[in-house]
Design brief:
Number of helices: 11
Radius of gyration: 45 Å
Strand content: 15-25%
Number of strands: 10
Largest sheet: 5 strands, antiparallel
Structural class: alpha/beta
Length: 345
């Protein structure tokens, strides 16, 4: 199938295609109307001890309860979650996500939670460090008693002991912009539009496969060994037919048969016009036949006529019917002059 054939199919079925696309678009819009927008903002808190004294397990086990405590202070309108790191990673990065219908509020909540966790963790470790210093002083005094004969000052004794929590720090990476999450209305509508295109294409493909309608003059002439005598799109449709029949037969036919593939030939304007022309120019007779699937007499009429014209209407008649009609007329030794090609609506 050429591009021109494809475009002619789209043009002919444009109303059906448009209807299918509109229906699918409306369904898509109806589906997304109840869907509320959703946004997510993420902030992180990195906890580490550069001295390497405090392990990752210790940091995680002490910060996780603090995180849960901070989250409990926020309402259910914003869903806040904490993702704890693996003990094997360094530094320990805690990811705070806030999800809700308002993107700006999600950013604010994520950052507030991150700052709350960092502040409480720093306060906790500062308290622990103070307690450890107090214990160290007592230990230092014990060392002085042991080394009372030596000139060891209290500060030197304290330096012997590790200051476990003084190097722990907490770095905040705040959220800046929210990211849309969940179902996006535009994406849903585009999916339904694509589905509509696929359904329209599949429907037309089925129609074309089942009916195989006549689409163009080129299609008829390339599929069958027959000539198209005239096209209804041109002016003087009946006049052209008569002239071409005369030229092909080499004489003015006295009896001309018009055989439509479908419908009632008595209702064709072409038959009336041909009768007027034939009577005026040759005193000839034009016989209107009924489709072969409706009347067997049409074969007898075509056999007695000097020339037979097959009337084919684009998009209404089908290629298989045209092929079967030609085969039956040729078996009956009818003189088939050619096809009168009528443009369908």
């Amino acid at each position: 199938m050429s591009f021109l054939d494809f475009m002619s199919i789209v043009k002919h079925y444009r109303k059906a295609i448009s209807l299918i696309l509109v229906v699918f678009l409306l369904v898509g819009v109806v589906c997304v109307l109840p869907v509320k927008p959703s946004y997510k903002a993420a902030a992180t808190v990195s906890a580490c001890d550069p001295s390497g004294v405090v392990s990752a397990n210790t940091l995680i086990s002490m910060i996780v309860p603090i995180s849960n405590e901070v989250i409990d202070d926020y309402s259910d309108d914003i869903k806040v979650q904490i993702a704890a790191p693996s003990p094997s990673t360094a530094p320990c990065v805690f990811t705070i996500t806030a999800e809700g219908e308002e993107g700006g509020e999600c950013v604010i909540v994520a950052n507030e939670v991150a700052r709350g966790i960092a502040d409480k963790a720093a306060e906790l470790f500062a308290d622990l460090n103070t307690l450890y210093r107090d214990e160290s002083k007592e230990k230092a005094k014990a060392l002085l008693e042991i080394f009372e004969t030596q000139d060891v000052a209290l500060g030197d004794a304290l330096s012997i002991l590790s200051d476990n929590y003084s190097y722990c720090n907490f770095i905040i990476d705040e959220a800046s912009e929210p990211a849309p999450t969940g179902t996006r209305p535009l994406h849903v509508i585009l999916v339904f539009l694509l589905a509509g295109i696929l359904v329209a294409g599949a429907s037309i493909a089925c129609v074309m496969a089942v009916r195989d309608p006549i689409r163009s003059i080129k299609q008829v002439e390339s599929a069958f060994d027959i000539r198209v005598l005239a096209d209804s799109a041109s002016s003087g449709f009946a006049e052209r037919l008569w002239v071409n029949v005369e030229l092909l037969s080499g004489e003015k036919p006295s009896v001309l048969a018009v055989l439509p593939l479908t419908g009632n030939s008595d209702d064709l304007q072409l038959v009336s016009d041909l009768r007027c022309i034939a009577e005026e120019k040759a005193g000839a007779q034009v016989l209107a036949c009924q489709p072969l699937n409706e009347s067997v007499d049409s074969v007898r009429i075509a056999n007695r006529a000097n020339a037979t014209i097959i009337y084919a209407e684009a998009w209404c008649d089908s290629m298989p019917v045209l092929g079967a009609t030609l085969k039956e007329l040729r078996l009956a030794n009818a003189k088939v002059a050619g096809v009168a090609f009528a443009r369908g609506n």
